[in-house]
């Protein structure tokens, strides 16, 4: 029997041990671990190659969190599935869902972002709404309510075009390219020069204008969460905890304001993972920095135990990419011909359960 053709995707989403891809027809397929239902196929069975999620609905945007996934349907409604212990699925319950479930509230969305325990979305009127865990103020609703089981408005009246959600903080870029963050700030991950919780959006210091932003989380216990962003001049900046060199500035020093990523790279996009980050240059080359104990930097080194890198290293293979997504211990990227490649730990979509320190192609079903 002939081997199945490798799938093509328009978008990717990655989380804790799983990845999902959205193809040109609006079909979402997922692979990896599935103990929480994060693969969305109405089971808890893990898959080493892509499998379509449950149902005939089609989608136009996808976002991966820790153990849950959310997507915007062609009807502009939000749907989520997977782990729901903190209400991050937005369906009014804290029950896990093995198949896509509608987010309550009747809102229509442009874009969603899924964090470890919460979810946020930019509505069609450019206002932001969040739901799920809120003990650190990450929903931005100016309250200390621990959980929100359906969307609540982020306060401040800001209009956003980009949103990202981490473990316990959230950031967005407004229509004027200014970055704002809120939630847990004791790692400096809010970038406003302070070490405290903010329950409403606060401007990131430095006066930079950004096109892309990504909230990362700590790979070690302690206040080491961080944020990275690509500026409109294609320079990358990171701030927050830096124990693994995840800020890419050549140090392991915590930064309370944006610090320039070293290497002179011109990055069109950047994504923060668990103690590491990756970016794609304007020429399509992928670079990563930070923690590398599970080969998540993709530079062809050992599968386990590599030392962290405090400055960017090139992802091996010489592929040309258009987008990249970082999970907790793995990363995946799309080439310019819409093929997906993954590296790091776990099931990478190539039919095996063995990780790789260099990009491997995601296989057919």
Q: Can you describe this structure?
A:
- This protein has strands at residues 11-14, 18-22, 28-32, 47-52, 59-64, 68-73, 78-82, 97-102, 109-114, 118-123, 128-133, 147-153, 160-165, 169-174, 179-183, 198-203, 210-216, 226-231, 236-240, 255-260, 267-272, 276-281, 286-292, 306-314, 321-326, 330-335, 340-344, 356-361.
- A hairpin with a 3-residue loop joins strand 13 and strand 14.
- By secondary structure, the chain is mostly beta strands.
- The strands form 7 sheets. The chain has a 4-stranded antiparallel β-sheet with strand order 1-2-3-4, with no helix packed on it. A 4-stranded antiparallel β-sheet has the order 5-6-7-8, with no helix packed on it. Strands 9-10-11-12 form a 4-stranded antiparallel β-sheet, with no helix packed on it.
- It contains no helices and 28 strands.
- The mean pLDDT is 96.
Quick tags:
365 residues, mainly beta, four-stranded antiparallel beta sheet, 28 strands, 45% strand, globular
């Amino acid at each position: 029997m002939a081997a199945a053709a490798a799938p093509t995707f328009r978008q990717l989403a990655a989380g804790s041990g799983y990845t999902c891809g959205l193809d040109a027809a609006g079909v979402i397929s997922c692979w990896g671990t599935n103990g929480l239902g994060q693969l969305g196929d109405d089971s808890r069975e893990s898959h080493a190659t892509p499998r379509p999620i449950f149902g005939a609905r089609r989608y136009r945007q996808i976002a991966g969190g820790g153990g849950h996934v959310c997507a915007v349907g062609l009807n502009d409604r939000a749907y989520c599935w997977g782990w729901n212990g903190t209400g991050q699925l937005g369906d009014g319950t804290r029950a896990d869902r093995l198949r896509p479930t509608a987010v309550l509230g009747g809102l229509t969305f442009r874009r969603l972002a899924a964090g470890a325990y919460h979810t946020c979305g930019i509505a069609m009127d450019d206002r932001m709404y969040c739901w799920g865990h809120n003990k650190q103020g990450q929903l931005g609703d100016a309250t200390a309510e621990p959980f929100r089981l359906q969307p609540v408005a982020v306060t401040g009246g800001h209009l956003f075009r980009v949103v990202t959600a981490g473990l316990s903080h959230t950031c967005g870029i407004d229509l004027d390219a200014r970055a704002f963050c809120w939630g847990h700030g004791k790692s400096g991950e809010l970038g406003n020069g302070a070490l405290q919780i903010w329950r409403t959006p606060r401007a990131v210091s430095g006066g930079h204008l950004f096109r892309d932003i990504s909230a990362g989380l700590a790979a070690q216990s302690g206040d080491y969460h961080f944020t990275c962003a690509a500026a409109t001049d294609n320079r990358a900046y990171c701030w927050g905890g830096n124990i693994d060199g995840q800020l890419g500035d050549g140090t392991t020093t915590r930064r309370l304001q944006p610090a320039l990523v070293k290497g002179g790279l011109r990055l069109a996009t950047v994504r923060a993972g668990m103690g590491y980050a990756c970016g794609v240059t304007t020429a399509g080359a992928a670079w990563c920095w930070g923690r590398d104990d599970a080969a998540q930097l993709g530079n062809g080194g050992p599968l386990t135990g590599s030392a962290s890198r405090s400055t960017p290293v090139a992802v091996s293979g010489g592929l040309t990419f258009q987008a990249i997504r970082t999970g907790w211990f793995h990363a995946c990227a799309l080439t310019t011909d819409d093929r997906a490649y993954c590296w790091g730990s776990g099931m990478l979509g190539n039919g095996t359960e063995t990780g790789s320190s260099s990009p491997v192609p995601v296989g057919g079903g």
